[in-house]
Structure formats: C-alpha cells, structure tokens
Amino acid sequence: MKTIFRLLCLAAILSAGNAWADPTDARQKVDYPDEVKAKFLANMRDHLESLADIAEALSQAQYARAADIADTELGMNSQGATACRPSAQGKSMHPMMDGAGQDHLMAQRMPAEMRKLGQNMHRAANEFAEVARKAEQPSGSPAAASAALGNVIKQCTICHAAFRVN
Questions:
Q1: Neighbouring C-beta atoms of residue 43, cutoff 10 Å
Q2: pTM, to two decimals
Q3: Contacts of 165 (CB under 8 A, 6+ apart)
Q4: What DSSP string runs through 96-151?
Q5: With 0-12 CB in 10 A as exposed, 13-18 as middle and 19+ as buried, what is 135?
Q6: Which of 20, 63, 111, 113 is most deeply buried (CB count within 10 A of its CB)?
C-alpha cells in the first residue's frame, strides 16, 4: 500500500500544474476559456479523489468496491471521460455553457495527443476494474490489482508530464 500512496502523492503533485509554473516548463500548453478550465481542473481533482477512494478500498481488501469506483468514476463511460471519448470532438452539443457545453468546448480544444493519453488512462481504469474483480476470487491476485492501479496512475503521469493547462 505504500507504493499506491506514493503514486497518489506523485499524481497530486503533477496535477498541481500551474501552481508552480516555470517559464522553462516545456510541456505543451492547453488554453481553455476560464469556465472550461475550471471544469477541466475539477475533473482532474475528481480523478485524484477517485484514485484515493480506490486505494482506500484496496487497503481494506474491498476489490469489488474498488472496481466499481474505477468503472463509474474513471472508466471510459464515466462522466469525467466525456471530453476524451473518440466521438467527443465532432459531437454536436448544446452551445450553452452548462456541463455538456463545457465538455464540448473542452473536447474541441483538447490536443489529439492529450485526448489519446486521456483515453489510455480511462481504459486502464476499466482494465483495473476487471483485474480487481478477479482479485476477490480464491485464485485472484491482489498484487495484480495493485499493479493495474499503478498502470492507471502511470497514464496520469504521462499526460501531466506532456501537457499543462494555461
């Protein structure tokens, strides 16, 4: 569990983004309007909260709970994955600045590589859920569940190392 905690701490630091902005920061800047930026950053914080909830469930050997959190809060069908879905960029959404409109603008301005990295993370969350559900079985592997969660966090780290919200 120490490894999971360390990975979550690393993810939190990487999510801080502009808090410690450096003029020599070579990451690609992503510009969003203020309302969309606020929603994007809220999504990132929600992802971190979900990862913390998953780590807590794993620490209590609640593999089905961890899997459910991963599927519903981080997986490809989760609300937080809306702008990363392959169809998001071209999807016609209401132009109002409600949640759907912000997701649409987020998708429109998200670089293709960033979308791909987001998809990798959301798919890794679904893969983690499969492995975590198997961990509850007598032949299951809690270590495999921890490794699969590590892969989810690794995908976060790759994206945060490449992009920053301006």
A1: 21
A2: 0.80
A3: 17, 18, 29, 30, 31, 32, 37, 40, 41
A4: SSSHHHHHHHHHHHS-HHHHHHHHHHHHHHHHHHHHHHHHTSTT--HHHHHHHHHH
A5: buried
A6: 63
pLDDT digits (tens, 9 = 90+) for 19-58: 556 788 999 999 999 999 999 999 999 999 999 999 999 9
For strands 163-165 and 28-30, give the pairing. parallel
Q: What is the pLDDT of residue 98?
A: 47
User: Is residue 76 domain-resident?
Assistant: yes
Tell me if 6 is assigned to some domain.
no
Q: In terms of residue numbers, what domain contains 50?
A: 30-165
Q: What is the pLDDT of residues 65-120, one digit of tens each?
A: 999 999 999 999 988 888 887 765 554 444 444 455 677 788 888 999 999 999 99
113 within a domain of the structure (yes/no): yes
pLDDT at 149 over 90: yes
Half-sphere exposure of 159 (CA within 13 A, CB side): 27
**Above 60 in pLDDT, residue 17?**
no
Q: Assess if residue 107 is contained within a domain.
A: yes
